[in-house]
Structure formats: structure tokens, C-alpha cells
């Protein structure tokens, strides 16, 4: 084969590879998911559509994120024995309020803590007090506090402040509203709070940056309580610049693709030299 | 006494950071199982409000399953005297505690029913279900009563079990308490206490326990007087001594640390209780024709199961002192065990001037 012929072949090969990479970069994220990693998209809905109601049609068009759950690291006995493996999370906002609709499978609705061995099913949503810094996932730290919205199936919702495990204290009055249904082996809980917050240590949502959020679920009939719980990683609400927040996945796919091109070109060059 | 004060101070092993330690000695040879203590405690602290099933003070028949049923098999406590690893424990079921029964008083007392008086429910277990049953066969059956409260332990595994640090040992007197504001009803203390002396209140949604009647010992009673815990003061045979373990002039210190005849229940749980028992004596066994034979009625190995190996020496010491008195001699030990003077039995103001 002549030298020139070899060059042309290499150039053609490189072009094909670049085309493939660009295609992969655009199609790839769509195949994985249509949004950046660990994002809970927040859809605008009208207050008239009653998003507080877990069965409201307002939720039909709000995308759901499947959030994997795992046992929280904790020093309480049997901390690694938890039962809920994933939850579905949707989020919406009206002009005034932020809503979260959370739903998970649980074969028994444990509402009554009527005896010494009975525990209620429960759910918690955790957000940082200071939305510009990510606190330690296990209930923050004394320097980086978190708000915890804690709903228990025995009927109460508490708004808590925490700075590390075992430190929760109640806000005097909870600003979080909760409505729930249990149907066909699934809890569905809608929690909401006003976007604005003027109270001390209450997370503001009317901000220009992404806001971290994490979830925890307890299955009462498995005696899950306290640190024995299923928890998520940090997720975020995309309140930052751009309609969807930083598109991490697309960026990663493109970087990976360009790296492949680089390697291919270097390889082609090396082959030509020999 | 005063010359070896320093040496004895070192012997009194108090929990870290505790100034003094309240303690109680119960002489099991005097308990008649009347439950006056149980009722005194219940009417003071655990009537209504989700507390009906709780007995901060209970009196159970031994041998027997106790309250809650089979609490001795429910785990908790520490793995060793190092106190660095706890034993897993279980929360007893409501059935094991038994419910507070409602009775058909209304029908019988007011509506002229001639039914027998009985619970409205159909219970299959409850506190004292096996009362006076004991063990052994006629004519050598045996049992005794065991009054139990929280031991306000020196190494309380209940405190250690709480992930919220809602439980603590009071600095001034070592009383173990639950901060009701911090408690979130997780019940790790209930499973962590090997004596099952923390109870979950399903109405308040917090755990609760014996408070050693601290308002009484603080002098919050009528006329600002100091009283011993109600279970002690109300006991007809006055079998409880109340005071401080580190009050070296008091009978508790002498019985526990000098004569070593007052022993903790189940020392192998390693929580180091501050309630101590004088182990029970019983008449010897009888032959079929009613003659006394030289065999102990309550098997020693059973007492050893409850009070540990030291029970042998304790019983021997008491026996020796009794012989001494029987021969016309004097015994400080027996004087203490038979003292009826409340000022000497309840020494709760000895450290008030500090
Ligand atoms: S008896 Fe149980 S509840 Fe009381 S201090 Fe000891 S471990 Fe705690
Ligand atoms: S009041 Fe005294 S004698 Fe009666 S059961 Fe209680 S401890 Fe025993």
C-alpha cells in the first residue's frame, strides 16, 4: 500500500469515528436518562390542580425519578437490615410552594404504634440549611445543618433541624404540609412547603443555585427506626442557571467520545509511521 | 473506721463523673409478696396516660418467668466487664408484659349480675400469672419473692443504647433518667436493658422508667421533707434500706462492700446494679414423714444463677453471724438486718451539706 493511500484511509477512519462519537454523545444520554445525574426535575404546575393531593392529575405529567435506597451506615443494632430498595420521587412547584410526591412499595401500612414492638412507617426528606454547601449525608454536621421533614404514618409531620446523627430538634411550628394515601401496597406522600423562608435555619428554595435533597424511608413492621433506615444519595433540585442545570451526563459523554477520537488518531499516526 | 477511710473510698466503684450513687438493699427473707410497693409505685407514677401496663416496681415469684415474661432470656447488657461491647437485646411483646385488664365491676357491683368477677378480655398471661407456683415437689416445693426496680446501674447499658443520648445518669446521685424532650421512642433502651426496666409509653410515644422517686429524695414532698422512694417507705415489713453506696457510715456500704452479703441480681449482665439483695434462706427439706433433713430447700445452684458465685460466701457469712447470735453473741451484721429505726434505714441527707 502506498503512503498516500494509507493517509487517506486513516483520515476516513477518523472521520467515521468522530461522527460516531458525536452521535453517541447526543443519543447516549437519552438512552441512559433524559436528565443530568441525581436530578429531581421540578415541574411548574398550577395551584388550582391541587398538587397537595397525592391522587391529583397534576402529577400525571410530572416526570418521576427512581431513587435507589440502601441501608444507612449507623451504629444502632441491625442497621444493615432494611427493606425498602427504591422510591419514586416527583417534584413540582406553584408560584408559592415546592411539592414533593414520594411513593414506595410497603406490603403493610403500619400506622399504629399501639404496642412496645410496633413501629410506624416513616419518611424523611433532608435539605441543607445553607443551599450553597453540601453537608455530610448523614444528617449534616454541626457546621452544616440540615432541615428534615419527617412524616410518620401515625399521622404526624415534623420539621426538624439536625447537625449530625442523633441531634434532631423540632422547629416550634412545622411549615411542612403532608397528605398521604396507601393504596395497593404503596405509600404515596406529598410534602410541601413555601418556597420562601424567612425563618432562621429554614432552608430557602427561592434561590439561584441547585438545592441538594436526600431521602430516607423506614418500614415499621421490620422494626426500622432511628438509624436503621433506607437512605438515598444526595440528589438535587435544578434551581441553578440553565433550564435543566448543568448537563453533566452530556458533558461526560462528549469528553469520553473525544478521548476515543484522540486515542484513535494517535493510533492511526503510529500505524502510519511504521 | 476513720483511719482506713481513704482505702475504703477507693473500693467504692462509682460511675465516671458521678458525685454519689443512690443504692438500695432489699432483704429477700422478709418479702411477703403483698405488692404494697407495686401499688405505691403505680399510684404515684404509672396510672393512666399509656402507663397502665407498666410496673416500674414489680414483685415476681422465683423460680418463675417474671415480668415481663422470660425477661432473663431477652438479652441486653454488656458482653464483658470491659463495657465496650453491648449484647443484643429484644423488646418484649405486649403479651409478655400483659395488658392492664378491665373488669366487669360495673355489671356485678351495680347491675346485679351474678357472674363471677373477671377480666373483660380473655388473658393468657399477665404479671404474676405464675405467682406462688415456684418449683420443687411436695413436701419440698419452694419459692420466694423478688421485688425489682431499675437498678440505676453504674454501667447502664440502656444509656449506652440510646442513639440520641436521651438517657443519662444524674451527676449528683447516679439516678438513671430519660430526658422526655429528647426521647423519640426508638426503644433501643428497652432492648438494651437486661432487666427490662425501661417501658415504652405508646400514648406519649416515649420510653419511661423508675426515677428512684427523685422528687421525694430531693425533699419535694409535703413540708419540704425528704422521703425514701415510695416502694421502700410503704413496705409493711420494711425490708428495703435506702441510701448512698459511698456513704461509708451507712448500712448499705457495710452490707455491700464490707460484709459482702448484699448482692446484685445477675451480675453477669455486667451493668453493675445499685440495687442489692440479701439472698433468701428457707427451712431445710423435709422427709416424707415430715422430718427435717439436712438438704437446702432452695437449691444453691439456683441462687447462684440469680446472684452469681458470691452467693455462697454471702449465705455462709450470714449463717455464721446467726450462729454467733444464737450462742448469745453480738453481730453488727444482724443488727443492721433487723434494725427498725427509719433514720438509720433511710440515709438520704448525708451529703446534703456539700
Ligand atoms: S436496670 Fe436497666 S434501665 Fe435501669 S439503669 Fe440498669 S440498664 Fe438501665
Ligand atoms: S411491699 Fe415489701 S413485702 Fe410487700 S411485696 Fe413489696 S417488697 Fe415485698
TrEMBL record, chain B:
Its cofactor is [4Fe-4S] cluster; [3Fe-4S] cluster. Keywords: 4Fe-4S, Electron transport, Iron, Iron-sulfur, Metal-binding, Plasmid, Repeat, Transport. One of its GO terms (molecular function) is metal ion binding. It is found in: Cell envelope. Residues 22-51, 141-172, 174-203 form the 4Fe-4S ferredoxin-type domain. Its main location: other. InterPro entries: 4Fe4S_Fe-S-bd, DMSO_Rdtase_II_Fe-S_su. The keyword Transport applies. The keyword Repeat applies. Residues 80-89 have a biased composition (Basic and acidic residues). Coiled coil: none annotated. Residues 65-96 are annotated as: Disordered. SUPFAM superfamilies: 4Fe-4S ferredoxins. GO terms for cellular component: membrane; periplasmic space. GO terms for biological process: anaerobic respiration. CDD domains: EBDH_beta (cd10555). NCBIfam families: DMSO_red_II_bet. This is Respiratory nitrate reductase beta subunit.
Amino acid at each position: 500500500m502506498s503512503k498516500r493511500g494509507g493517509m487517506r484511509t486513516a483520515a476516513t477512519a477518523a472521520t467515521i469515528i468522530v461522527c460516531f462519537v458525536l452521535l453517541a454523545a447526543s443519543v447516549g444520554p437519552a438512552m441512559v436518562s433524559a436528565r443530568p445525574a441525581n436530578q429531581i426535575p421540578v415541574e411548574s404546575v398550577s395551584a388550582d390542580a391541587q398538587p397537595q393531593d397525592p391522587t391529583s392529575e397534576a402529577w400525571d405529567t410530572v416526570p418521576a425519578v427512581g431513587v435507589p435506597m440502601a441501608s444507612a451506615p449507623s451504629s444502632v443494632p441491625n442497621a444493615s437490615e432494611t427493606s425498602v430498595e427504591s422510591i419514586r420521587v416527583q417534584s413540582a412547584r406553584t408560584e408559592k410552594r415546592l411539592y414533593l410526591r414520594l411513593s414506595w412499595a410497603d406490603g403493610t401500612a403500619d400506622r399504629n404504634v399501639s404496642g412496645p414492638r410496633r413501629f410506624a412507617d416513616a419518611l424523611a426528606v433532608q435539605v441543607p440549611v445553607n443551599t450553597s454547601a453540601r453537608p455530610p449525608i448523614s444528617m449534616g454536621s454541626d457546621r452544616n445543618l440540615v432541615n428534615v421533614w419527617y412524616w410518620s404514618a401515625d399521622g404526624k409531620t415534623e420539621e426538624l433541624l439536625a447537625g449530625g446523627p442523633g441531634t434532631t430538634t423540632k422547629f416550634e411550628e412545622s411549615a411542612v404540609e403532608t397528605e398521604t394515601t396507601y393504596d395497593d401496597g404503596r405509600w404515596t406522600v406529598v410534602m410541601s412547603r413555601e418556597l420562601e423562608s424567612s425563618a432562621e435555619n429554614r432552608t430557602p428554595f427561592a434561590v439561584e443555585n441547585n438545592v441538594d435533597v436526600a431521602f430516607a424511608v423506614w418500614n415499621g413492621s421490620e422494626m426500622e427506626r432511628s438509624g436503621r433506615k433506607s437512605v438515598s444519595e444526595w440528589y438535587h433540585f435544578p434551581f441553578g442557571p440553565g433550564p435543566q442545570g448543568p448537563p453533566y451526563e452530556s458533558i461526560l459523554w462528549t469528553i469520553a467520545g473525544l478521548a476515543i477520537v484522540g486515542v484513535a488518531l494517535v493510533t492511526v499516526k503510529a500505524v502510519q509511521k511504521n | 473506721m476513720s483511719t482506713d477511710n481513704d482505702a475504703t473510698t477507693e473500693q467504692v466503684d462509682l460511675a465516671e463523673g458521678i458525685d454519689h450513687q443512690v443504692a438500695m438493699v432489699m432483704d429477700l427473707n422478709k418479702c411477703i409478696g403483698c405488692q404494697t410497693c407495686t401499688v405505691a409505685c403505680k399510684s404515684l407514677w404509672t396510672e393512666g396516660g399509656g402507663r397502665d401496663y407498666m410496673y416500674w416496681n414489680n414483685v415476681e415469684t422465683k423460680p418463675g418467668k417474671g415480668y415481663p415474661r422470660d425477661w432473663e432470656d431477652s438479652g441486653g447488657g454488656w458482653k464483658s466487664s470491659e463495657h465496650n461491647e453491648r449484647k443484643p437485646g429484644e423488646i418484649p411483646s405486649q403479651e409478655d408484659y400483659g395488658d392492664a385488664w378491665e373488669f366487669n365491676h360495673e355489671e356485678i357491683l351495680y347491675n346485679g349480675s351474678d357472674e363471677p368477677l373477671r377480666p373483660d378480655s380473655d388473658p393468657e398471661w399477665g404479671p404474676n400469672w405464675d405467682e406462688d407456683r415456684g418449683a420443687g415437689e411436695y413436701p419440698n416445693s419452694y419459692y420466694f419473692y423478688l421485688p425489682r426496680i431499675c437498678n440505676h446501674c453504674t454501667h447502664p447499658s440502656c444509656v449506652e443504647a440510646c442513639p440520641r443520648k436521651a438517657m443519662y445518669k444524674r451527676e449528683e446521685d447516679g439516678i438513671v433518667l430519660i430526658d422526655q424532650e429528647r426521647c423519640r421512642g426508638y426503644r433501643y433502651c428497652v432492648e438494651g436493658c437486661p432487666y427490662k426496666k425501661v417501658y415504652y409509653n405508646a400514648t406519649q410515644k416515649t420510653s419511661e422508667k423508675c426515677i428512684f422517686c427523685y422528687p421525694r429524695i430531693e425533699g419535694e414532698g409535703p413540708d419540704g421533707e425528704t422521703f425514701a422512694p415510695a416502694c421502700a417507705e410503704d413496705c409493711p415489713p420494711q425490708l428495703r434500706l435506702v441510701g448512698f453506696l459511698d456513704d461509708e457510715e451507712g448500712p448499705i456500704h457495710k452490707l455491700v462492700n464490707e460484709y459482702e452479703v448484699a448482692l446484685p441480681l445477675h451480675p453477669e449482665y455486667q451493668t453493675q446494679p445499685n440495687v442489692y439483695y440479701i439472698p433468701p434462706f428457707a427451712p431445710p427439706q423435709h422427709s416424707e414423714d415430715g422430718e427435717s433433713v439436712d438438704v437446702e430447700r432452695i437449691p444453691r445452684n439456683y441462687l447462684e444463677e440469680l446472684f452469681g458465685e458470691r452467693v455462697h460466701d454471702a449465705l455462709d457469712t450470714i449463717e455464721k453471724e446467726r450462729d454467733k447470735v444464737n450462742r448469745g453473741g453480738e453481730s453488727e451484721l444482724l443488727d443492721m438486718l433487723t434494725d427498725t429505726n427509719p433514720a438509720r434505714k433511710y440515709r438520704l441527707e448525708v451529703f446534703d451539706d456539700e
